Amino acid sequence: MYMGSLPVPSTDAGRAGLTALLDQPERALIAVDFDGTLAPIVADPEQARPHPDAVPALARLAGRVAVVAVITGRPAEVAVRLGGFAGHPELAGLTVLGAYGAERWDAATGELRTPPPHEGVAAARAELPALVTGTGAFIEDKGGALAVHTRRAPDPVGAFAALRDPLAALAARHRLALEPGRLVLELRPPGMDKGAALTALARESGVGSVLYAGDDLGDLAAFEAVAELRDTGVAGLRVCSGSTEVQELAAATDITVNGPEGVAHLLATLADHLRAP
Ligand SMILES: O=P(O)(O)OC[C@H]1O[C@H](O[C@H]2O[C@H](CO)[C@@H](O)[C@H](O)[C@H]2O)[C@H](O)[C@@H](O)[C@@H]1O
Predict the structure, then answer these.
(1) 194 lines ligand 1 (CB under 6 A)
(2) 222 and 241 in contact (C-beta within 8 Å)?
(3) From ligand 1's centre to the CA of 95, what distance in Å?
(4) HSE on the CB side for 109, CA within 13 Å?
(5) 119-188 belongs to which CATH class?
(6) What's the pLDDT tens digit per position in 141-181?
């Protein structure tokens, strides 16, 4: 069902979230995930780029809402580079929270904040090649974390399943978290997730409504955070960037759109609705 050209959220709380965003955009936070939400999924992580309509839509929204943010598992500076977010005058207020919220880049200052290295990542880095050899998986070394990708393996799902337990054991040995995603298993420092990152940003900005869009298991914490923010009086709208790969998000969200193309369309339609009078 559509409200004008905007989809109608499937829940009362989601409808309240959308209404709050449309009524008081100057008090709204719009936060989006990068891979699978802004950027279509591709086989080589280095080749991921936002959907062509996504960044222009974010830029239009940035002029109308209180805060626009990208919250991603990528290192913040990688998301900034792949997204082309630096030096974009209309995105001068953009915040990028990388490494599941452990890193922060603010367009306004250009400042990048990263945590000190976790010794477990260095230890896992040394052991990982032996575990991965022969599976067809490849390692994306993100500096502060390690991602093992099976998308390019001959049997991506089989390789993912075969690696899950050994990587969980490796993570446990080195006090790391194992973060499963879309044909990827990430070893990363514990203690931060996208939910904590989103809540902190919402509190810091004092917003009255939050929209969060994501596509993967790592986004569930952010969707839960939106639900918790609602209990504290902050209206919320949870948008699923739908895919055939991840089925678990529909129950945790208020709107499902068709992947990054659908997200870009939704953001652009929101920007149309919020056009300055
Ligand atoms: O939080 P996100 O912005 O969604 O980042 C999560 C991970 O995404 C990337 O991997 C995913 O996208 C790749 C490029 O499309 C794809 O090849 C891979 O199969 C996906 O899992 C990225 O490479 C990771 O570092 C991110 O943590």
Answers:
(1) no
(2) no
(3) 19
(4) 8
(5) alpha beta
(6) 999 999 999 999 999 999 999 999 999 999 999 999 999 99
